[in-house]
Fold these 4 entries.
Entry 1:
Amino acid sequence: MSSTRSPSRKAPATEGRWPVWKLALLLYPFAAGTVAINLFLAGLIAHAVGYSALSPIASILWSLPLGIPATWAAGRWVRSLMDEADG
């Protein structure tokens, strides 16, 4: 038996990179705010067509859970831009 280390040991591939979940945590307030604004404006459009309007508070409350997939998509997009910049 030799006392050398296994050649299969590598440094982690993500060393120095921001993972998507960290980017998503950073971007969540902005993405949820964007979702709230879009929901409110969609409610105004729906009101013009004949449906009931969506209040600003209801828009904010709906944006909290709906902001999660939007944040994940934004995080993946930012990660791809960062990877392209490293290129």
Note: The chain has two helices and no strands.
Entry 2:
Amino acid sequence: MVRVSSLDPTIAARLKRDADGLVPAVIQDVGSRDVLMVGWMDDEALHRTLSTGRGTFWSRSRQAYWVKGETSGHTQAVREVRLDCDGDTLLVLVDQTGPACHTGDLTCFDADRLL
């Protein structure tokens, strides 16, 4: 599915997307450096994140955009967005208000430690 975007063409040209036009976004707390969650962004979600300063993602299950904290109040104020050296992953540094995980955990990585 092709979604229209207002993303700066210079930034868009640097992205390496998957077959669905998405790039994984690793969300990290700017203060603690904890990895909070991973979301998916297409060009429009990245544009919205950059222009509003709020973490905006593409929901693969709902096939819709969502803004972190829009319903829960657990918002992300975006402080910095970085693109990795291969252009296929974003790092989004945020000030997180409340838990980042929909389960109520501080991070999406709190529950299951494998090693």
Note: The chain has a mean pLDDT of 93.
Entry 3:
Amino acid sequence: MSVDSATVRRIAHLSRIAIEDSEVERLRGELNAILAFVETLSEVDVDGVEPLTSALPMQMKKRVDVVTDGGIADEILANAPIREDHYFVVPKVVE
């Protein structure tokens, strides 16, 4: 795949980057070099290689997904300057 000058200008426009006309050819060369490198990756034989999410084999720690109040509502409300029942009292901000 090769990038032309119009594509460079379009990429710059979409990424909201201001480029001068004198920069287009240099950027075209850089983008083509990047794409050429990416194309060489397709030559790598990856048959039998499993995809990795981590360098170390590990299992995610999971917890039961249950809804609770945290069990410490009284401790949390102890820090409130004003409270009513089990709620914080705050100033009214919307009329």
Note: The CA atoms of residues 31 and 37 lie 10 Å apart.
Entry 4:
Amino acid sequence: MANIKSAKKRIEIAKANTLRNKTNKSRMKTAIKKFEMTLANGDTENARRAYTEAISIIDKTASKGIIHKNKAARHKAALAFKLNAVSE
């Protein structure tokens, strides 16, 4: 355990940041799963809405530095590929 006041403060800040990052990652994963569920049900109209929402959340997560921008691009490309496969 840290003895110095600034080190103790950094520990608390790290806990808060970790919690915030986990929350945002979970939100992103949930949006992706929601998109995949609507796509699996064959509801293309709702899948398009879920796709737009998922893309937005992925971009926000990447802009905050929670995930790498290349990982965000990879996720978005995979979702677009799935949506286009069903749309055709």
Note: The mean pLDDT is 95.
